[in-house]
Specification:
- The chain is built from six helices and five strands.
- It folds into two domains: about 15-90, no CATH class; about 125-160, no CATH class.
- The strands form two sheets. A three-stranded antiparallel sheet has the order 1-2-3, with helices on one face.
- Helix 2 packs across helix 4 (about 70-85).
- By secondary structure, it is of the alpha+beta class.
Length: about 160
């Protein structure tokens, strides 16, 4: 580089640095004079996302950890979780863990969908609701429920029309 090249570029000034500033509950992440991220200071997920993004953009993990007031080990852990699980891995689930397996959750969802369809069709309605629907179209009397079988824990009722 010649001296004239240096003059054309002008004074570069300080090297670009990562900064984090919190004002009125809003966090602003800047790199040099450019704003990179702005989010609610209580939003852990966005904070972690910004942290992973700036390290992916080339900011050293140690510098990013210092700016975000975290340890470099935790920053590396977040980067690993983001790589394995995507953005969902950046926030730990709140509350106690589910006692249900994913298969059980799928089964419950399917049962709820079937119940909703049956309800829309009127198949899950009580006798009085069905009777009103039936009487609207017919003059046939509706008898009450009849006890068919009984045991200590189960009673089987059959509805007749």
């Amino acid at each position: 580089m010649t001296e004239s090249d240096t003059l054309e570029l002008g004074d570069v000034g300080e090297p670009l640095r990562l900064h984090r500033k919190v004002t009125d509950g809003t966090c602003l992440i800047t790199y040099g004079n450019m704003a990179c991220f702005r989010y609610d200071a209580k939003d852990t997920g966005m904070c972690n996302l910004a942290l992973v993004a700036v390290t992916d953009a080339g900011v050293p993990v140690k510098d990013a950890a210092t700016v975000f007031a975290l340890t470099p080990e935790y920053v590396s852990e977040l980067r690993g979780r983001a790589c394995k699980e995507g953005s969902g891995g950046l926030v730990k689930p709140l509350g106690r863990p589910s006692r249900l397996t994913p298969a059980q959750i799928t089964q419950i969802t399917q049962v709820r969908q079937v119940r909703q369809v049956r309800q829309e069709l009127g198949l899950g309605a009580g006798q009085s609701q069905l009777a009103r629907k039936y009487h609207a179209f017919s003059e046939v009397p509706v008898r009450g429920p009849t006890l068919v079988g009984s045991s200590a824990s189960v009673q089987l009722l059959v509805l007749y029309w």
